[in-house]
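Hey, weird one. I pasted the C2H2-type domain-containing protein sequence into the form twice and got a warning about non-standard characters only the second time. First submission, copied straight from the form history:
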Amino acid sequence: MVHALDVERIDILPGDFDTYHYKCLEGCSISFKYNRELRRHLSVKHEINIIELNLDFPNTTEFKKWLHNEETENYVQYVHLTATKRRSTGAETYYYECSRTGKRSYVDDTARKRRARKCVSKLNRGCTSQIIVNKSHDGTLSVNYFKTHYGHEVDLEHVKLSKQDRCSIASKLLLGLPVSSVLHSVKNPSGSLKRINLLGRKDIVNIRKSFNIDLKDGKIVNIDQINVSQFLTECNASEHNPVIYWSFQEFPKSDELSFALMTKYQSDMLKEIGNNTVVLTSTTLNNCDFELITLFVIGKSWESFPVACMFTNKVNDGTYNLFFTKIKDRVGAITPAVLITNCDQMYYEAWKSVMGEVPCNYYNPVQMEIDWKLNLNRIVCNETDVTRVKRKWVYDSLKIFQSIGDETEFVENLDDTMKVLSKDDDFKHFLEYFTRSFSDPKKWACCYRTGADLPLKQLEVINDVLRQYLNEDLETRFDVIFHSLIRFIRDETVNSMLKTKTNRAFFLSENDARHVLAMEKRLSGVHLSENVWSVTEVESGSAHIVQKYLEKKCCNLICTTCLICLHCFSCSCVDFFTGNAMCVHVHYIWVTYFKSTVQVSDDVSCDEEIVIKIDEEGEECDDHVEVLRNAIAGRTAVLNSNVANIENVGTLRLILESVNQLCDLAQIENEEQGTEHLNDHEYL
């Protein structure tokens, strides 16, 4: 008797032509049960060369990249048809078959509503091409790739659209592009022909159904998520992935959508000043049924900076534990001197369970005042005027409690007010709310915060600036709100990094480098609406949204060619979020649509613009500047080589003094401009 695990190793005798799935087409009129037997038969009996490659990959991600390239270059496609085989050792085996392998589905001609297609994808038999993946317990992959196809021609029309291509098309549909424009954008192949170049209206219909997109207005029916999904997918492929948590890979099947963001610079800032004051805010985005959780740090100079944020549509006790756990996994435990939260003990309990206890935990005065105003409607009387008077009296009393600095005076006033509230039934529901939410006055009363002054003005700025960016009272598109948050984090990062001269010079060089790259890449743009464009990368097919916010520059962080600053445009790409420079898509839009219009004055308040005519004099001027720069670089290289041979201390000091003066001269423009406007958020 043979054990069941050894069945696959036994050679099964061939059957008649119609017995098994893998058939010999060389006149033998026989078929085989397994693919390996057909390959052996063709190789031995008919001397057909079956190409076999043995490959190794460190992880599944690298294998997926190789598989995608193999399918794209050879016009083939592989599907995972059979179940995964799992061994007791933890190893797994996957089988990828040629997409042409399989049985055709037949429909009775009498029931057909349209004519049958002339050619179908399935062969009604098996192809010899196969990929066998053996995954070990440590995650490494060993691949046996049988490359030779049998029984069919390699034809591009039988290849399905890849997941990346489908997401790219869905993004364009979501942006509101007409179907004709989407089809036209992929009809002109650059280089070799690809499957996406054969895109048809039937493909558009299938993508529409798959992503649940209503093509009448280009929006997703349930939630505007595809743009966000594409962004998070691109983040996952970046070197420093800013996505620390992501829960909706199964779009659009999953109902629970949550993700958390923290860039490398944000994590560095949290490590650096996270021991001072940490502020946790939770903002309900009513128009799109989402909650935005944001973690800020406030340094000793009372300057705030957002270090992490989380979007979620389901908030419970475990949501905050998850958020803090992901932060701890990225940067380690944070022990701030002061933790400021919304008016609920749940926030502190979640922090304490993950990060540990905090010496001082206070309620956010700004959020506390908002909470009081919202709950004043619990006070209801028979007469409207009486209701208004009682609500005003309660609110004024609470504001007085906040400002009392003496503990004894505070306790006496609080007791007297509570007695008044308890004697009047009109205050019953409000009293229940107040005693439940503010039972511990040490978390909100000023008299218990001696020696721990809170940055009240900065807390107000945090709340106001965040709402200005999100514009959540007017905006209903979730993806638009999401990208507004991305712009907020990016602008705050730039604002923080501009504290040093080195970073200012870094921004200028990065902007110029992106401009050169934009001129080299193959991009195409579509004007969607006023100040909004879609930019598509021809090679990858990915589309991004570029939006214009400012007519003129507001700072000196410019591209020396475009003469626009970092705050003039925003883009939905990952590089805009993590690169802290104008991405190639912004440069492309400016060069394509605004090339001839530049600003005259360095003055931020200047509204004048002129049209520059490119002529021979301008070209000579550019050449002259380039010659000077090359000469400076050459002399600097000579100086660097000669310094190594100088032994005299006085000479070295003299050279150092001269170099310092030259460096100061090169930075004088940045020095004069300053960064005062950024602190006031004038670029909103």
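That's the output from the first submission. The warning seems to come from a hidden character in my clipboard, not from the data itself. Residues 241-473 form one domain.
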